């Protein structure tokens, strides 16, 4: 506990970096997955390729991916960009399937009605399919956010600092308080991400929460 | 006018859903496509707004080939109603109704105001406009579906089993209101159903399709019941055809004076002596309430103590309703009322039957007994009696 109180500055700085390294890829990955998922949902032939491909992507060990990134991107080995791109890939790996599942979950009647009354494919996606897929996509996003918060800590091994530093350093130097701070930090961060996603989902799906206003 | 000319649809795998179908849906009329599952009726409907593209043949709306139009644009100009209403669960009721006007780029405020008007037109309290579809009953959702289809005031409406997802009482109510609405709006409507009774009730013209997308017959409801083109159509029409056909025959039936007693303030006033075992009870303004057995007249205090089984026939109604009124009445005297529901007399079953027997069957002379089946431009006879 003493260690934690004495290092609040460091913990704060590392937490902020952790938020960026886990959060930015989450947003980027979601946007990319929406695009890929839409294509995979619409084009039957691409569906299998997208789902298998993204599944395989997730099996690459994170450390290997972090090390590989500078070679592919031409960035410096210590650049946080490596981690952000790698984490985005992991997010995409998890979310493409979720987006496809979410679009599959749209009631066929709603999709058909949209087509029948004159929605073109793009407007139907934005106006009808995506809003109705929100619950499924949000569920996948919650898994991805926990996964990101956890995997990012490995980046300490390639010199990109965040809360994982506390774990590595605490382990090497056998400082219990430091290990505890790193672990708790990750858990709290994961819970905060989760709460934010749930809040967002709730705001985007007012039609699922109508029980109390039935007489309004 | 919607015209299908030698339209065929084969799905990949070789199933023929619609086979060389030629059909005309006249402007301002309700054309019903009816048939068993697998007869291609929904496929036919969806080819009209290009949700399914025909394998061959042409479809025109007011002489405009639909395949030459942008599909989404075409659909915005055609009202479409599906089973359960097909509402968007994530949009409020009024936003659902405003979907097409907003797609067309109309002003949002005006579109919502128009949506509220339409809700009222289809019998939904506009106060429900802010609710979500899941907060409405099945019948209400169906009505909202109709309102949404009407929102951009399209001249043409396609309806796919629009009333089949609700219970029989609500269905009948919706059908009646639909006919009333159509009487005001005069849209060109193509409606799909598997329910022959619904087809007969709603259709100005009925196209009976057989499995494999073959057109078995096109006719008015009356013609269909009296002159089914083949055994398939006859079987599909079901029983009681002679009786149901009477629903389209209006004729004067002899009326008899009926002496009545009045139920006022919880008692029968002036229970005059009467030979007949049954006496008709009316209210103060002459509306029939029900039959009472004559020797119990003194004990009647409320209308629900009367025998209520008898149906009422309108003076200018069909022979079917007159006959039914007589058959359903405990006294066997059918109660006949005028448009305001006031008693005008009673009718007797044997006299209704005499009228039926004496009636010539005029359509025997006017139209051939068999028509349709071969397709072609004369698939529908606009002179067909309704």
TrEMBL record, chain A:
<feature type="transmembrane region" description="Helical">
    <location>
        <begin position="179"/>
        <end position="197"/>
    </location>
</feature>
<feature type="domain" description="ABC transmembrane type-1">
    <location>
        <begin position="15"/>
        <end position="197"/>
    </location>
</feature>
<protein>
    <submittedName>
        <fullName>Osmoprotectant transport system permease protein</fullName>
    </submittedName>
</protein>
<dbReference type="Pfam" id="PF00528">
    <property type="entry name" value="BPD_transp_1"/>
</dbReference>
<comment type="similarity">
    <text>Belongs to the binding-protein-dependent transport system permease family.</text>
</comment>
<feature type="transmembrane region" description="Helical">
    <location>
        <begin position="20"/>
        <end position="41"/>
    </location>
</feature>
<dbReference type="GO" id="GO:0005886">
    <property type="term" value="C:plasma membrane"/>
</dbReference>
<feature type="transmembrane region" description="Helical">
    <location>
        <begin position="77"/>
        <end position="96"/>
    </location>
</feature>
<keyword id="KW-1133">Transmembrane helix</keyword>
<keyword id="KW-0472">Membrane</keyword>
<feature type="transmembrane region" description="Helical">
    <location>
        <begin position="48"/>
        <end position="71"/>
    </location>
</feature>
<keyword id="KW-0812">Transmembrane</keyword>
<dbReference type="InterPro" id="IPR051204">
    <property type="entry name" value="ABC_transp_perm/SBD"/>
</dbReference>
<dbReference type="GO" id="GO:0055085">
    <property type="term" value="P:transmembrane transport"/>
</dbReference>
<dbReference type="InterPro" id="IPR035906">
    <property type="entry name" value="MetI-like_sf"/>
</dbReference>
<dbReference type="GO" id="GO:0031460">
    <property type="term" value="P:glycine betaine transport"/>
</dbReference>
<dbReference type="InterPro" id="IPR000515">
    <property type="entry name" value="MetI-like"/>
</dbReference>
<keyword id="KW-0813">Transport</keyword>
TrEMBL record, chain B:
<feature type="compositionally biased region" description="Basic and acidic residues">
    <location>
        <begin position="363"/>
        <end position="373"/>
    </location>
</feature>
<dbReference type="InterPro" id="IPR027417">
    <property type="entry name" value="P-loop_NTPase"/>
</dbReference>
<dbReference type="InterPro" id="IPR003593">
    <property type="entry name" value="AAA+_ATPase"/>
</dbReference>
<dbReference type="Pfam" id="PF00005">
    <property type="entry name" value="ABC_tran"/>
</dbReference>
<dbReference type="GO" id="GO:0005524">
    <property type="term" value="F:ATP binding"/>
</dbReference>
<feature type="domain" description="ABC transporter">
    <location>
        <begin position="2"/>
        <end position="237"/>
    </location>
</feature>
<protein>
    <recommendedName>
        <fullName>ABC-type quaternary amine transporter</fullName>
        <ecNumber>7.6.2.9</ecNumber>
    </recommendedName>
</protein>
<dbReference type="GO" id="GO:0016887">
    <property type="term" value="F:ATP hydrolysis activity"/>
</dbReference>
<feature type="region of interest" description="Disordered">
    <location>
        <begin position="355"/>
        <end position="386"/>
    </location>
</feature>
<keyword id="KW-0067">ATP-binding</keyword>
<comment type="similarity">
    <text>Belongs to the ABC transporter superfamily.</text>
</comment>
<dbReference type="InterPro" id="IPR046342">
    <property type="entry name" value="CBS_dom_sf"/>
</dbReference>
<dbReference type="InterPro" id="IPR017871">
    <property type="entry name" value="ABC_transporter-like_CS"/>
</dbReference>
<keyword id="KW-0547">Nucleotide-binding</keyword>
<keyword id="KW-0813">Transport</keyword>
<dbReference type="GO" id="GO:0015418">
    <property type="term" value="F:ABC-type quaternary ammonium compound transporting activity"/>
</dbReference>
<dbReference type="InterPro" id="IPR003439">
    <property type="entry name" value="ABC_transporter-like_ATP-bd"/>
</dbReference>
């Amino acid at each position: 506990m003493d260690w934690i109180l004495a290092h609040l500055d460091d913990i704060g700085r590392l937490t902020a970096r952790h938020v960026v390294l886990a959060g930015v890829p989450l947003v980027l990955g979601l946007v990319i997955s929406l695009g890929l998922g839409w294509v995979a949902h619409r084009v039957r032939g691409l569906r299998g390729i997208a789902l298998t491909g993204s599944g395989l992507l997730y099996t690459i060990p994170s450390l290997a991916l972090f090390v590989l990134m500078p070679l592919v991107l031409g960035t410096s080995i210590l650049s946080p960009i490596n981690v952000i791109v790698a984490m985005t890939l992991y997010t995409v790996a998890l979310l493409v399937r979720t987006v496809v599942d979410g679009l599959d979950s749209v009631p066929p009647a709603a999709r058909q009605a949209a087509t029948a009354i004159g929605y073109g494919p793009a407007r139907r996606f934005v106006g009808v399919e995506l809003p109705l897929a929100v619950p499924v996509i949000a569920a996948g996003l919650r898994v991805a956010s926990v996964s990101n918060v956890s995997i990012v800590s490995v980046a300490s091994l390639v010199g990109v600092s965040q809360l994982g530093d506390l774990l590595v350093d605490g382990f090497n130097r056998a400082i219990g308080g430091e290990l505890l701070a790193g672990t708790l930090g990750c858990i709290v961060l994961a819970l905060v991400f989760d709460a934010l996603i749930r809040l967002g989902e709730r705001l985007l799906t007012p039609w699922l929460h109508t029980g109390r206003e039935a007489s309004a | 006018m919607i015209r299908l000319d030698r339209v065929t649809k084969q799905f990949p795998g070789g199933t023929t859903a619609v086979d060389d179908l030629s059909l005309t849906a006249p402007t301002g009329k309700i054309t019903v496509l009816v048939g068993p599952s697998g007869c291609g009726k929904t496929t036919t409907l969806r080819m009209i707004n290009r949700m399914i593209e025909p394998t061959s043949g042409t479809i025109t709306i007011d002489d405009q080939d639909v395949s030459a139009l942008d599909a989404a644009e075409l659909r915005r100009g055609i009202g479409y109603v599906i089973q359960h209403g097909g509402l968007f669960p994530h949009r409020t009721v009024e936003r659902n109704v405003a979907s097409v006007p907003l797609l067309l780029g109309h002003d949002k405020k005006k579109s919502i105001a128009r949506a509220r008007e339409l809700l009222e037109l289809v019998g939904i309290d506009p106060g429900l406009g802010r609710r979500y579809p899941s907060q409405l009953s099945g019948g209400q959702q169906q009505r909202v579906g109709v309102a949404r289809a009407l929102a951009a005031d399209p001249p043409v409406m396609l309806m796919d089993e629009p009333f089949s997802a609700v219970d029989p009482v609500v269905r009948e109510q919706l059908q009646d209101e639909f006919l009333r609405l159509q009487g005001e709006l005069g849209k060109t409507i193509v409606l799909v159903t598997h329910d022959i009774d619904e087809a007969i009730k709603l259709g100005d013209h009925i196209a009976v399709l057989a499995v494999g997308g073959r057109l078995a017959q096109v006719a008015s409801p009356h013609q269909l019941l009296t002159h089914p083109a083949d055994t398939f159509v006859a079987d599909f029409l079901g029983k009681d055809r002679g009786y149901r056909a009477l629903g389209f025959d209006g004729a004067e039936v002899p009326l008899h004076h009926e002496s009545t007693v009045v139920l006022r303030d919880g008692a029968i006033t002036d229970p005059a002596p009467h030979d007949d075992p049954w006496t008709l009870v009316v209210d103060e303004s002459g509306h029939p309430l029900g039959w009472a057995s004559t020797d119990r007249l003194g004990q009647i205090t409320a209308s629900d103590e009367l025998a209520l089984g008898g149906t009422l026939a309108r003076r200018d109604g069909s022979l079917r309703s007159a006959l039914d009124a007589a058959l359903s009445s405990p006294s066997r005297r059918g109660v006949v009322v005028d448009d305001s529901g006031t008693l005008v007399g009673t009718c007797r079953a044997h006299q209704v039957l005499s009228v039926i027997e004496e009636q010539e069957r005029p359509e025997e002379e006017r139209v051939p007994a068999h028509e349709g089946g071969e397709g072609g431009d004369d698939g529908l006879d606009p002179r067909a009696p309704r």
